[in-house]
Amino acid sequence: MANFQKGKVDIVAVAKAAKVSPSTVSRTFNHPDLVNPATRKKINKAVQRLGYIRNRAAQTMHGKRSGTIGLVVPTINHAIFSEVIQAFSDSIDQAGFSLLLASHGYDLDREYAMVRKFLEHRVDGVALVGLEHSDATNRLITQQKIPALAIWNFSEESPLPCVGADNHLAGRLAAEHLLELGHRDIGLIFPETQGNDRAQHRLSAVHEALGEQGVSVPDEHETQAPYSVSQAKQAALALLTTPKRPTALLCGNDVIAQGALFAAQKLGLSVPDDLSIIGIGDFKGSADVEPGLTTIRIPAENIGALAGEKFTDFITSDDPEHFSIRCDLECVARQTTRSLAT
Amino acid sequence: MANFQKGKVDIVAVAKAAKVSPSTVSRTFNHPDLVNPATRKKINKAVQRLGYIRNRAAQTMHGKRSGTIGLVVPTINHAIFSEVIQAFSDSIDQAGFSLLLASHGYDLDREYAMVRKFLEHRVDGVALVGLEHSDATNRLITQQKIPALAIWNFSEESPLPCVGADNHLAGRLAAEHLLELGHRDIGLIFPETQGNDRAQHRLSAVHEALGEQGVSVPDEHETQAPYSVSQAKQAALALLTTPKRPTALLCGNDVIAQGALFAAQKLGLSVPDDLSIIGIGDFKGSADVEPGLTTIRIPAENIGALAGEKFTDFITSDDPEHFSIRCDLECVARQTTRSLAT
DNA sequence: AATAGTATTGCAAATGTTTTCATAAATTTG
DNA sequence: CAAATTTATGAAAACATTTGCAATACTATT
């Protein structure tokens, strides 16, 4: 009751209350098997009574893990990453870690700043989205020898352990789906690829796959839009009112595809009769729009959960080994695409 | 170069490299005005050369702030909160704080566990969504004297400082909008109100407003659905194929409203000619669906940004004063509602 | 040139834990 | 029953900082 008021409830206050030494209190938490059950009970009672809460900052100072993992994403806002964040968060929480989260708005310099900030907090590991990062970031990571993980993308050559999908393949799958359906006049709506290797890989793969079949995209049918339903809708509106409208739209991700769908509906076009639309991602909700969006499924939840699991394993393991996991992609044909063959 | 390898780059390594005492190095960071510019330069050079990164854990142990704020949300996944999280994150980042994020999946016991976890990390403050929390949580907060903030809801009587909107009013506005348009047969789709005071306040206000005009909702027109487009769509499908279909649907939030909209489209109903739909929230994307969703606008971004700003002020202030901010609601009439008058 | 003041710096204690080592008590073993 | 283990505890050093206090060097004042 004494120092109850003073707010100075630390391990020695508990020790005093339980009439043991601080060492014993500490041991009760960290190696309970080493302390007499009776003493343990006394201590736990004191802990309860005083409302003691362990101080991880002090633990961290001893080289113990801080119990935090930093995750830096481009944006929290959109459907795109919120699903991975949720899954990753849940997953590391299960392993007893807490999530430090930051976003950089597709600015790799800000990404660097965030990683640095996390390093000050002595995170036990830092997870980044994508494989492309500033030199400074890469240097920082290797120099500080901090466990790092690349989420979302997969590549054989990734220097960092990674858990994700092959975005190149995603682009190709989308293109091939449209080609198989007989489309030759294809419009493209992608975000700025600067600082966004996901979009970049997808787009180049699309061009490649299209090129293989001798299909090229005229300039006025290739347009840029950020990952925003509203702005994508505008861009699609413009593209669709172009003289010779394409028969299909291939969109950089599902957010853009939704924007395109709404644009088509606004113009009174019937999807998929007048226009086919395909997205990439299969975000929550993509299955439910009317008509259901055809898309390349990237298993965000899986990626997040798996990433969290593997990463915490990696961090807590004595001799961690490099890992890389490719998550499977799948073309989910719903109702926004149709065959041109009659 | 010596201990460059050993990874043991601490303040004394820097001090040694710069040929000064550790105190001076520390002062260079914390009270630069107290140290000679020339020495400062030497030290900064050493910091650069060794790649030193400050250790907040050690700082925290001295009663310095940890520089982290914990935010516990029901879910990260949905559009609902991702916008607030983003805004809050950006806002506290500006003030030099880092965000610890966790979700509880609408389980107040898990909320308690998350707050505790954050307390172990010695967060400088903890922000929660809504005003309803478990007794244990409330006790913990007052006992530990940790700055706490309620986000999203507003209420005069809130014991915690809060920044948010009046959900009671939101429900009322939605109901009144439909009443004004002449609707009397109104269907309701809301989530489980257990552990979700937002939904609870909205729903009770709706019944109240409807009751005032002598309108009551038959049981088969009031149904539950979680905040998921897909499940809401199912629920709406069921409700709309009921014998006597309502002329309007009032949905617990925009996610549900979108589900309802897609359900109507699937059934070939024209919105708003055959059916009016109103949501609550005005999430990103609600403006862009076709037809544009009529809804009660809750300024999520504003709330998040304001909350972050006020809270960091509160935390860093010497004599912090209790604050509560009510954010304005607005009925945004788009194209999913129409007047029944001919 | 002596005094008072100010600007810089270092020493050492303090912060809340964990852990190694030593010690004491209890238990097993021959 | 004595010797050898095992079990349970405490003392103290270590972790990476910050800061009050003291010491020194420098500048301004008379």
Automatic annotation (TrEMBL), chains A, B:
Pfam families: LacI, Peripla_BP_3. Keywords: DNA-binding, Transcription, Transcription regulation. It comes from the Bacteria. The keyword Transcription applies. The keyword Metal-binding does not apply. InterPro entries: HTH_LacI (IPR000843), LacI/GalR-like_sensor (IPR046335), Lambda_DNA-bd_dom_sf (IPR010982), Peripla_BP_I (IPR028082). Residues 14-63 form the HTH lacI-type domain. One of its GO terms (molecular function) is DNA-binding transcription factor activity. PROSITE patterns: HTH_LACI_2 (PS50932). This is Purine nucleotide synthesis repressor. It comes from Ruegeria atlantica. The lineage of its organism: Bacteria, Pseudomonadati, Pseudomonadota, Alphaproteobacteria, Rhodobacterales. The gene is purR_2.
